[in-house]
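Predict the holo structure. Ligand: magnesium ion.
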Amino acid sequence: NKRTKIKDLLVQEPTGQEVTVMGWVRSFRNNQFMAVNDGSTNNNVQVVLELGKLDDETLKRITSSASVKVTGKAIASLGKGQKMDLVADTLEILGDSDPMKYPLQLKNKPTLEYLREIAHLRFRTNTFGAVFRVRHALAFAIHKFFNDKGFVYLHTPIITASDAEGAGEMFRVSTLPLDNPPKNDDGSINFREDFFGKTTNLTVSGQLEGELGATAFGEIYTFGPTFRAENSNTARHLAEFWMIEPEVAFNDLEDNANLAEEFIKYLIRYAMENNRDDLDFLAQRLAEEEKQLPQDKRSEMGLIEKLEFVMNNDFERVTYTEAIDILLQSPAYKKKKFAYEVKWGIDMQSEHERYLVEKHFKKPVIVTNYPAAIKAFYMRSNDDANPELGRGPTVAAMDILAPGIGEIVGGSQREERYDRLLERMSEMHIPAEELWWYLDTRRFGTVPHAGFGLGFERMVLFVTGMTNIRDVIAFPRTPGSAEF
Ligand code: ATP
Ligand code: MG
Ligand code: MG
Ligand code: MG
């Protein structure tokens, strides 16, 4: 079935050429003008029906969201709104739709919250059309960026026995019969037999396996689904999200930060060059939404301006210690505006991250060298404990903080020294036997190496200007939403 996509049609010169388009009716007026959309762009093609040619029965079936096939001639439009009209020779209704029952028709201006309830249909709106075309473009750009640099795309496992983060946020994968699970002597369920005799979970990060790849190929990246049993309802956490995790041999923390900054800028530039229509639409949407906010809550820059600024300016780089000092000196802290405590040695909350980015530096910030005590076991120690200040050592970690979101990247230089790694694992009660395969990278030709994880949905949030992470993934998994 040959059809012309509306996106491709609208850039042609209308010289009377015959084309066939297929899509869904967005609106129909005066029994004559039909706006048809096929998802390739937010722009509709205006189909003009010849008055009197169609019978009443067919006219009645042209309702919003009915699917149609139109063959006709593309001519210069006499109307003001568009360059081109498609004058129909034949019209076929492929699928009827009852406008009184169509969920997108039932609300006049459907809110994002309402659209989340009908996530199975929300792709048909202009907002979600734009968001998911941008998401697609970014996914493609990720592969292009790393492929052009010679990285190997490594598929790390989804079912795994390792808990990379040690944060205990895992979903268990089990084959136990629910009605009659194997029991221990004391009658409790024997979870050791979860997965054909092993305890397994859904991956929280592909990093540890990624390190195996990096210490063989030199440079790898992963890009896959990641699962965390986040029982929190925030605008930036999902139970199922996608993560990009490059891992590079011979890199230190600074190389790592440079790679991450280059990568983020590349992704923004790619979307700006390839999806400008969609970004312009989203920018407009955001500007209208912000008009409803009080003056002091509005952003200083529009979406396009923000993306251009981030793309063309260096990210700020500070240490964790400097960041804490800035927060302690801030008017927000002095006026007790923060809900959470600020103190050297505890993790920053999103309110603190956003303060640094939005109020203090007014640009993305790379924070380095966090206290070892609040980071995972595999990060390289800076061996800089300061007993006089009562401070333990920091590690070569980095988080990248973005406006409107807070953390979008978490990464580090890894502890490549075998003895130091063993020591750290034992301090954190991580049994070496369980990670024997990981430790082998340190036993046989260990090298300095570093990597990071970029949360894909947080990047999509950033580029699209959307504010809730549920609106940038097709089928959000959060507590209470996993219907389809
Ligand atoms: P946060 O502090 O926001 O909970 P994290 O420090 O737990 O994030 P990391 O373990 O560093 O996250 O994971 C790397 C990246 O993955 C994060 O920087 C973020 O972009 C993304 N990420 C982490 N958890 C989630 C989640 N639940 N939903 C969506 N993205 C996430
Ligand atoms: Mg977390
Ligand atoms: Mg964090
Ligand atoms: Mg992190």
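Residues 165, 228, 230, 236-238, 241, 243, 407-410, 453, 455, 457-458 surround adenosine-5'-triphosphate (ligand 1) (CB under 6 Å). Residues 73 and 82 are 15 Å apart (CA to CA).
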